[in-house]
């Protein structure tokens, strides 16, 4: 544990920690229509292309009663460095309100369309500029490294936020097992491409205009930062399909779309990789996608957010968005000398 977290023998919570009474209740997470109205984004949606409008705003989608994806309990420890004092978002909200365009652009599509998604067998390859390429099967994902729980804020580019308890291991620990070569500078991630299981991949129109497979990337320094996390579960159980089973990335100081789901490949590179949203709309989505309240999305402000809570979005207090989503002390040094307005 970092020395800065101790004072006269007393454990000091990290500066970005959050109180449990601030965590979003699960039921509130499902109220998508209320969220959009409260955010004041309804009128904005009318100016968007149809497929993007459906995915970003989901103005009229309604939840369908459905059994959640089958999950199982995980064995893990709680990492005291990442304890927070904000309320957790209720689990029922997290598993029913998702952006996962491989299963459709509506917020309800992932829950509705991912129930038959088969994650076993699975292969995750770590290759590229590494000394020891690794291929992990389904069981390896929960066995190759000790699992821990970390509670992170999630800030969506759409200006709503949650607090989620993830289970997994640090990205850097997996990369160290593979042995990153000195010539490496970036990491690329790739989602499964399987149109038969993922109906949103059958056409660009159905999938929000994205070329599949979905790809994302980080600098090597970002990937090795201790906050970067590979999640194999949430709320103490394996990930539901709609949340990125069986393994996804969580990068809490960046907008949520950087946290790529259902990963099948991690490549270590010597150059910046292309990323899906940056390719689709570079004027709106940059490579870095750091949470920055001073840089607005072209169609809405990023200066504040709605922290979804138990009373619903209308009763939720609008809060100021924090630079780097509250993790500035841990990650700001990664961008020393970089113009974060130009490099959004």
Describe it.
- The chain has 344 residues and is an alpha+beta fold.
- It has one domain (13-335): Sulfite Oxidase, Chain A, domain 2 (Alpha-Beta Complex), CATH 3.90.420.10.
- 15% of the residues lie in helices and 21% in strands.
- The protein has helices spanning 32-39, 42-45, 50-56, 91-94, 109-113, 171-178, 220-224, 276-280, 328-331, and strands at residues 6-7, 10-11, 77-78, 123-128, 134-137, 148-155, 160-170, 186-191, 215-219, 229-234, 237-238, 248-250, 263-269, 304-307, 318-320.
- The strands form 3 sheets. Strands 3, 6, 7, 10, 11, 12, 14 and 15 form an 8-stranded mixed sheet that branches. The chain has a 5-stranded mixed sheet with strand order 5-4-13-8-9.
- Strand 4 and strand 5 (134-137) form a beta hairpin.
- It starts with 5 loop residues before the first strand and ends in a 13-residue tail after the last helix.
- Mean pLDDT is 83; it is low at 1-13 and 20-68.
What labels would you give this structure?
single chain; 344 residues; alpha+beta; Sulfite Oxidase, Chain A, domain 2; eight-stranded mixed sheet; five-stranded mixed sheet; 9 helices; 21% strand
Secondary-structure map with pairings?
Elements: E1 6-7, E2 10-11, H1 32-39, H2 42-45, H3 50-56, E3 77-78, H4 91-94, H5 109-113, E4 123-128, E5 134-137, E6 148-155, E7 160-170, H6 171-178, E8 186-191, E9 215-219, H7 220-224, E10 229-234, E11 237-238, E12 248-250, E13 263-269, H8 276-280, E14 304-307, E15 318-320, H9 328-331
